[in-house]
Amino acid sequence: MDAQQLAAELVDKARAEGIDLVGPRGLLTGLTKTVLETALEAEMTEHLGYDKHDPAGRTGGNSRNGTRIKTVLTEVGPVELDVPRDRDGSFEPVIVRKRQRRLNGVDQIVLSLTARGLTTGEIAAHFDEVYGAKVSKDTISRITDKVLEEMTEWQNRPLDKVYPVLFIDAIMVKVRDGQVTNRPVYVAIGVTVNGERDILGLWAGDGGEGAKFWLSVLTEIKNRGVQDVCIAVCDGLKGLPESITTAWPLATVQACIIHLIRNTFRYASRRDWDALSKDLRPVYTAATEAAAAARFDEFADTWGGQYPAIVKLWRATWTEFVPFLDYDVEIRRIICSTNAIESLNARYRRAVRARGHFPTEQAALKCLYLATRALDPTGRGRARWAIRWKPALNAFAITFEGRIVPSTTN
Fold this sequence. Notes:
Blueprint: H1 3-16, H2 27-48, E1 64-74, E2 77-86, H3 104-115, H4 120-131, H5 137-145, H6 147-155, E3 162-177, E4 179-191, E5 196-204, H7 211-223, E6 228-234, H8 240-247, E7 252-255, H9 257-266, H10 273-284, H11 289-303, H12 308-316, H13 318-321, H14 329-335, H15 339-355, H16 361-373, E8 383-384, H17 390-399
Parallel strand pairs: 3-6, 6-7
Antiparallel strand pairs: 1-2, 3-4, 4-5, 5-8
């Protein structure tokens, strides 16, 4: 009988007898109890060297000594187990260890719910409502605290030697330090020579960061193996451009086009966003600076009367925007690619918004790290930056000749 047929028969039987799938007396609870107890008996047999009820156990020495009742929390709820014992107490079970009160899968559920922004109280309520299990908020906090060591290892892991593009962005979180205040958490995102997004780390700030702070962050990244960055994209962070060129003298600092476009829409009514986007596109896709200036004059004539602040914003940042026009169109496409950044920011914002505020900076960093960890099994948050990466790689290799060699940079 295959697994699917067996499952179908069990479900039909449960329905016929009015048994729930989960819960204290549910079908899955009973199956989990049977499987775990069978595994424990198999471990005891291996430990003693003979099967249950085998006459070999009557020859003296260590032998079975009944069972003891133990309740463990599993992915399907609390399960009461009959754990076998031996006479000299030397049995050390592996499937459910001594003093273990929950299976590892429960910890993963807690971490997954935390990554999605649920508070300890909400997670406790979830276990009570879905599984009928009482899990204290302190227990949930202890489970999530286990990732702090893992987070430290992730924050200090070795990085690639070269990143064609490095983005530095910020997300605002609310931290209760006497009173609730907004604090920035900075995230560094690298585009690897293989065209993947690599989240390099998270750093908490207070909003007043200067060159000294940024130099320490970039030095940390450099010490983790990053020897060169071709283009560093940032937006209005005091002291950051100077620190970038100090850490990597050959790096080109580029104003973030994504932020510039996003800030444009903040001054405009939502009903005009599509029209604004259509009229702005010829500006940042122009072949030359002169063509971009001509297109922007047309944009200013159309929208300047209705939205003068947008025109002022672009004129104020024009000198930081212009270097973007010198790049190959494939490089521009990578710098302006919003999907990889916005998907990450959306995950972060959802986790932060659900929590409201955090008691400490460490709690905020832990929440954001869990959101990063949930992006893929490795926790590194790697994803393809662009579907067509090879044309961009060729453009980077030509523009930054000798600095990008895929076979030696990883």
